[in-house]
Amino acid sequence: MRLDELLAGESESLEYKVAEPENRDKYLKTVVAFANGRGGKIIFGVANDTREVAGIPQDAVFSTMDAITNTIQDSCEPKIIPRNSMTTIDGKTLIIVEILPGMQPPYYIKRQGPKKGVYIRVGGTTRPAEDYQIQEMILDGSNRSFDQQPTTKPIKPKEADAFCSRLYKYAKKLRETDDTLQAVPLMKLTRNQLLSWKLLYERDGELFPANGYLLLDGKHSDAFDDAYIQCAVFKGTTRSIFLTHREFHGPLYEQIEGAYTFVLQYIQIVPKIRGLVRQDFYEMPTKSIRESIVNAVCHRSYLQPGQIQVALYDDRLEITSPGALTSDMTIEKMKRGVSIPRNKAISEAFKYMGIIDKWGSGIPRMYEAAKEYGLRPPKLEDLGGIFRIEMYRPAEATDNKTIQKTDQTIKTDQWTNQKTDNKTNQSIKTDQATNQKTNIKTDINVETNNKPAPQTDIKTDIKIKADTKADIISAREAALLRLIGENPNMTQRECAEKLGWKLPQTRYYFSCLQQRGFLRHTGAKKTGAWKIIIPEGGDSDE
Fold first, then answer.
1. 242 pairs with which residues across the strands?
2. Strands laid side by side in the 241-248 sheet
C-alpha cells in the first residue's frame, strides 16, 4: 500500500486508530462492517482526525498485533481471521489489519447478538445495520434473492397459466417493435419454467408464488407498498420548482413502459440532416433512457423502503433506486459490462421477455451512446443505501430561450400519496416558442385557417411560428396524426389498439392535439370523423 493511499483519509475501506483502544468494540464494529461489505484496512498508529502518524511503541508492536488478532477471532461470529502486517513511516511503526470480504454474512459482535451486533460501512463511517439490510445479508450469504422467496398464499393453476400468457404476449409485442429481438426464438412460457426460475413453488400439490411473481403480476401492491416508480419534471437543475409529476404502479414491465414514455414526452426532438434526408431524433439516446429505468427496476432492493425516482431537470435525467450495490459489485465492474443481478428471478423473466439481454452490456452501451450523441458520459453513483444514474442533456437544453419557455401553468391532484395506478389528472398549458419543423404525412381533408383544402396526397412540413401558442408536436402525437390521416373515422379505442397504447394514454394525446388546435372532430360522436388542422401561421412545403 503506497504512502499516499495509506494517509489519504478514512473511507469506505480505510479507518485509523491512534492505538488499540480499551473499549475494543470501537474497532470491532469496523471489523464486522468490513467483513459484511467489500473489506478494508484498519491502520493502528495514525490519528483519525489529523492523520498524524503517531506510531506504535517499538516494544509493544508484536504484543499489540497478537492482542488485536485474538480479540477479532474470539469476538466475532462467524469467525473472522485478519491479515496483519507492519510498515514504517519516518521511523514510526504502523500496524495494518486487513479484513477480507466475508463469505458468510451477516457478521456480528458476539456479545451484542445477531440483531444489534451487525454493522455496515457507509462512506468513512460505521453504522448499525437496519433489519432489511440484515435480511439481505442472510439471503446473499445463502446465495438466494428476495424475489425467489416463496409466499404463503397458494394460487390456482389457471392463475399461473394466465400469468404465463401475459408475459408471453408482452414478449411477443416487444419483438414486433424491436428488430434485434425478432431473430431470437420465443417459446410459450410454462409453469415448469416459472418453477425453474423460482418464481413459483409446488408443495403438496399446491402452487405458491414467490415475491418476484407477485411483483411481475402487479396485482398485489398491498404486499409491496414501495414497489412503484415516481416520475417528475423540475424547472432548473434542482428540485425546488416542481412542474409535473406522475406515479406508475402495476406489473414491473408496465411500470418501465410508463416511466419511459413519461420521459420521452418531456425531452426535445431535434431535427438532423442525414445525407439529403431530414430525420428527427430525441435529444438523448432513447435506448439508454430505457436501459437506466430497466436497471433500476431489475436491480433495486425490494426489501429497502423507498420508490424508484425518475427526475428530469433542465440539464440531466436522474434515476435513483433503493439499495446500494451488492458487496461483490462495483461501479468499475458495471462499466466493464459485469452483471450480477440482485433479483435473480425477475432478471430471468426480463431476459425471456427481451427487456434485458444476457450479457450485461447495457451500461457499456450507455457510455457509447452518449459519445455518439456528443453528450457528457453518464454518471453512476453508489450513495450508501441508494444507487443513482445521471444522464446528461445537450448543453443547449439548459437555455430556456432557445429550447423552451417555462412559463407553464400546471394543475395536478398528485401531490397526495394516493396511488393512481397509471392514471393522471392534470391539465398543462404551455407557452413555447420555436421554429422547429415537424413532419406529418397525410392523405385527408386538411383545413388551413378554416378553409377546406382539396383532397390530395399532401406531404406537409408544419412550421410553427415563434409567435403562436402551439406546442411542438411530439413523436407520439405525430404517430397518432399519421394514423388518423390513414383513417379519419377511427375511434380513440381503435387508435389505441392499432398503436399498442393504453386507452387513457391515447385519450391524453387526443386531448392535447385538440386543445392546441391540431385536431378537430366533426359530425356525431360515434359516426363523425377527425380532421387535422394546420394552425394559423403555419405553412406547408412540398
1. 234
2. 241-248, 229-235, 308-312, 316-322, 386-392, 379-382
Where on the phi/psi map is residue 521: left (φ > 0), alpha (ψ -120 to 50), or beta? Answer: beta
Return all residues near 416 (Cβ < 8 A) that are at least 6 apart. none
Closest CA to 367 of 426, 306, 288: 288
What pLDDT score does 470 carry? 38
Phi-psi region of 517 (alpha: psi -120 to 50; beta: other; left: phi over 0): left
Q: What is the pLDDT of residues 529-541, one digit of tens each?
A: 888 886 444 443 3
**Which DSSP category does 156 fall into?**
-
Task: Give the span between the Cα atoms of 535 and 516, in whole angstroms.
Answer: 9
Question: Burial of 149 by CB count in 10 Å (0-12 exposed, 13-18 middle, 19+ buried)?
Answer: middle
| Nearest partner of 208 among 227, 188, 184, 191, judged by Cα | 191
Taking a C-beta distance cutoff of 8 angstroms, is the pair 362, 294 a contact? Answer: yes
Q: How would DSSP label each residue in 225-251? A: TT-SEEEEEEETTSSSEEEEEEEE-SS
Pairwise CA distance, residues 481 & 525, whole Å: 19
Tell me the C-alpha distance between 98 and 89, whole Å. Answer: 18
In sequence order, what E strands does 142-240 have?
200-203, 206-209, 229-235
Q: Which residue has the higher pLDDT, 220 or 397?
A: 220
Q: How far apart are CA 178 and CA 198, in angstroms?
A: 28
Which of 217, 224, 229 lies closest to 420 in space, CA to CA?
229
Report the pLDDT value the prediction gives residue 445, as an integer from 0 to 100. Answer: 35
In angstroms and rounded to an integer, the radius of gyration of the C-alpha atoms of the chain is: 29
Check whether the bond before 378 is cis (ω within 30° of 0).
Answer: no
Identity (one letter) of the amino acid at 413? Answer: D
Which grid coordinates belong to 375?
Answer: 453528450
